[in-house]
Amino acid sequence: MSKLFITIVALIFVINVHSQDVTGLEKRGRESLKARDYDAAIGYFTEVIKLTSQLKGSGRALSNNFTDSDETDLRDRVTVIDPRTAAAYVERGKAFLAKSSFHDAISDFDHALVIKPGAAIAYHCRATAWLMLNRSDLAINDFNKAVKIDPQFVNAYLGRAMSEVDLGDGRAAFSDIEQALKLAPKEANVYYHRGDARRRTGDAAGALEDFDRALKLDPNYASAYLGRATVRLFKREFDPALADYTKAIELDSNFPQAYAGRGLVYLMEGKDTEAEKDFVKAIGLDPNLRSTIETNIRTINSWKLSGKTK
Predict the structure, then answer these.
(1) What angle do CA 120, 125, 126 make, to 5 degrees?
(2) Which CATH superfamily includes the segment(s) 236-310?
């Protein structure tokens, strides 16, 4: 048996083992994302990236980040040995995004786009991270690219609409939402986003209608309960607001905004112990909420002094 034949057989064996390892890691990573075990997901997708890509000249597996450089330089230095590398960066970026590690998420989406510049999902995810960092201008740029690549990308229209609301362009926002409605007229997600846009532009009645419609389409839509609760809270409808926040928590026990909102209701009702528990839970789930919660507490305490909570 020739050495060449043995080498080829060995190479095929290594490739097969490598492929099986990657498939298993991808599956466990996706399962961890679904279960909201984001640290585990990050670990699995990091291993996928190490197995499927390398840096030119060094032979080293890609680590968490490239050295600081522009996209052209990155593209020159990357050798992709498996088409799943870009997808792994996107999935790991989603886990970072869920952990509110927005800059790490953006770095991963950058990497994915260097490898696969036509990945609409990477532009969408990066735009979402920019939106969370209050960079609506950069978010709109990425949502624009996602829509250009995939004109049927409903969530990209919705994300762009939220960015446009942030920038005070309500006309453009509702135009994008109407486009999303044309593409997906029976998706609860679309009505939820229109309700949120209406809430943020001062149309409380319209917002409630859309949140109700979203819940009719999907009775287990936790975010729609959160949206409806928020409108009811500012209308001083405390009991219905409390019920909606509680329902959102029942559907999603790791929903920091729902705990923060319910805590505000408890605080307005003078149930300070319950409020404190919810605020601690919310901050534990998302430390970025601390400043917002502290500001809201000061506002409510000032309302109490002036009798505005009645």
Answers:
(1) 100
(2) Tetratricopeptide repeat domain (1.25.40.10)
